[in-house]
Amino acid sequence: MPESELLLTAFFNDHLAGLGNAILALFHITAKNPARPWETWIVMELLVVAILMVLFAVLRPKLSVENPGKLQHMVEVFWAFIKDSAHDVGIHHPDKYASYFGTIFIFILFMNLIGLIPGFESPTMTPSVTCGLALCTFVYYNVMGLRENGGHYFAQFIGPVWWLAPLMIPIEIISHMARPLSLTIRLYGNMFAGDQVTGVFMRLTYLVMPAVFMGLHVFVAFLQTYVFVLLTMIYVSLAVSHEH
After folding, report:
1. Which residues, in sequence order, are CB contacts of 40 under 8 Å at separation 6+?
2. Residues 64-87 pLDDT 10s
3. For a designed S-S bond to 165, which of 44, 158, 196, 237 qualifies (C-beta 3.0 to 4.6 A apart)?
């Protein structure tokens, strides 16, 4: 077991290495070290998925119109917040897209926060994870734009007048390709930097300062989650807008 390997990752590699290699083989990928194919960011993502599945499995039977519980109230407030935010950026029918916005918000937030638990690590400190999230958003807003506007969706690449098309098409393509890159670097960079700062001060000080910087880490986790989802909303708004 490598010194830097988390205990949960070590458990996966010690007992589920064959399964990990089999999954990688399905995608024609060979692990750098076949004896230990599980990387920490994959294990942490799986853990977050498991936590969310358990959480919603517990919540669903308790849903009630007549007597909603505290957790249900929190979820309803969160749902209203997502829809209001989507409407504020110009999406006229936010109900169509709120499920995606809400899903990535909760998923990213839990991945950001899990690193505060001793022995765990935030998957969003790995560029592969943030890139995957950014590509999901890239595919999603383009698909939604095509579904809403059909072939007219591509008119945005031409510009306001047809004779500007040779200039506008390369500019628009570069602009769209830069969006997932921006989402990837912003989320990864801020989470990695926040974790490093928190780790340094927790090693140098005791009790009071670690609590302060852990609070800062929680703030950064929420803020970066919101920024990622807000930018996703803006991209969807631009894609589905008939005027645009």
Report:
1. 5, 6, 9, 121, 123, 126
2. 777 777 777 788 899 999 999 999
3. 158
pLDDT, tens digit, 9 for 90 and up, residues 114-157? 988 878 889 999 999 999 999 999 999 999 989 988 877 777 77
Break the chain into its structural domains and give their ranges: 39-240
First to last CA, the chain: 55
Nearest to 179 by CA among 143, 135, 146: 135
Q: What is the Rg, in whole angstroms, of the alpha carbon atoms belonging to the chain?
A: 21
Tell me the pTM: 0.89
**Distance between CA atoms of residues 95 and 238, nearest Å:** 16
| Cβ pair 43, 12 in contact under 8 A | yes
Cβ atoms of residues 43 and 7 within 8 Å: no
Give the tens place of pLDDT for each residue, 154-178. Answer: 777 776 666 677 778 888 888 889 9
pLDDT tens by residue, 203-236: 666 655 566 677 778 888 999 999 999 999 999 9
Residue 90 near residue 97, CB atoms below 8 Å: no
Cα angle value 69/110/74 (rounded, 5°): 20
The Cα 8–Cα 42 span in angstroms is 11
Nearest-angstrom CA–CA distance, 71 and 77 = 10
Quote the tokens at residue 188.
């990864």
Question: What is residue 112's predicted lDDT score, i.e. its pLDDT?
Answer: 93
Query: Residue 224's closest CA among 98, 130, 116, 88?
Result: 130
Tokens of 28: 């024609």
